[in-house]
Amino acid sequence: MAREEIKIFGPATVSNVGPGFDLLGFALEAPGDEMIIRRNGTDKLVLINKTESKLPLDPEKNVAAVAATSMLHKLGSCEGFDLIFISKIPPGSGVGSSAASCAVAVMGINELMGAPFDIADLVPFAMEGEKVASGSTHADNIAPALLGGITLIRSYDPLDIKHLPYPDDLWCTVVHPRLEILTGESRKLIPQMIPLQTALKQCGNLAGLVAGLTTGDYPLISRSVNDVFAEPYRTTQLPDFDQLKESALEAGSMGTGLSGSGPSVFSLCRGEEMAASVGQVKKEHFSSRGIESWVYVSRISEAGCKII
Amino acid sequence: MAREEIKIFGPATVSNVGPGFDLLGFALEAPGDEMIIRRNGTDKLVLINKTESKLPLDPEKNVAAVAATSMLHKLGSCEGFDLIFISKIPPGSGVGSSAASCAVAVMGINELMGAPFDIADLVPFAMEGEKVASGSTHADNIAPALLGGITLIRSYDPLDIKHLPYPDDLWCTVVHPRLEILTGESRKLIPQMIPLQTALKQCGNLAGLVAGLTTGDYPLISRSVNDVFAEPYRTTQLPDFDQLKESALEAGSMGTGLSGSGPSVFSLCRGEEMAASVGQVKKEHFSSRGIESWVYVSRISEAGCKII
Lengths: 308, 308
Description:
Chain A has 308 residues and is an alpha+beta fold. Chain A is built from 10 helices and 12 strands.
């Protein structure tokens, strides 16, 4: 007999990893979204919010419902489901809140329907939801939210995702300051025409970062975490961002950058202890400027969405 | 007693490897330059050409002499040397003819002087010579010519070179058609402002190529060998270039592109047999259009310049 209900965890993710603007992302062990999905015997998606976050409950405006609808449409299915939000990554934090919602919705419904799709094939449906949040179709949060680990989007057309190997002791600290930056607005700040020399800098750094990750070359990783496409235009609202990067580097991090479109700031670190102390340094940076912040310390997680 | 004379081999190299415009290059086992370098007891560099290629013999215009002068200047040395060109990669072929000359000159003089520099530290001197040939300072031929293997220029400022691992059975075929393209002229064709979306395509492909090489993922290598920065502007003089790429792909190659600024065309291949047959297909492409060509089939070479 087919399962009627399922509970799914979807991890927070860091996207736009340094020079990997729109292309590189990774999954964290925590925080994450939790969602219960159950058949409701109708032909509608019903959104139920049991979290403290404010979420749109109109299925045409809720990213998870848009993603789910896209998948159901592809299957030619008219089944209805309740999507019950149990726990939610704070929206607008820059750690893939919308991607996690989209990922858990498509993963859960896919499971309830007997897994007609491989998990990798769910990415395009989840991207449809992400599009509602950011105004553009990108997959660098969606791919690691579904697949786990560090994912490279080699190409969007056709979609081509590579799961990258990386060193075992690669940890990350994300500090989320209480500042609001909306992804859609933030994208508009980025120039759409750029000098070839700027593009070559980004290419070199991204290639260096990928080479550093796949060969376990920490110094190379450290030298490569630098984004010249988006970060210079997105960090104007973060006080003394260059100083923050410098402090995190001095504290031993392997490079610091905006997580997604911010305001969260990630730092790659070697080991948990280093990640914790770098997190503390970044928290102090914000608190000394009167800004409250939350610190997440996590190993890069091989797990994407999972049934709990 | 110090050595008075040395004979050096410097390999041909493929640069601008697919999406690695200005950043990625590799060394071939053959062809290559051979040069004898000997102290001449004066304070001058004397150029002696024993090859069939036409080479400038004015030390201010000869790339090898400019590179050597740059190194000697750094050392504060007034020693003179004869640079005797014994064998020469045809200039203007696109397989790093000038880079090989620069590399053998600085490598040889460095050896004769008791190796004051590590080989990696010779790159900037050789680049000074390369600048005379192309009008711009790039290192993606120089680095593999000196160091061997596949090299990524992560950054030019500061210069940061990573030697990449790659699969053992990676071979290359280069076909050199009798067509003349000069690097300096060819660079002027490339737009200096580009759409962000074009840059992201290149970033994705270069990251994919590096990931494919370092993890031995041949299908990913094959999907990633595509240059959107330079190739579309440089292949107008090569008849039916798209068809050539397609034929090489059908014959089993892992991707085809311009070698350097052309006119040579490289194809990455798995194993010698495949490389030989792809070379034949490309030769026929040109011969059926009335263009003579030379085929080189070589394993990617771990050796850079070496004493012979």
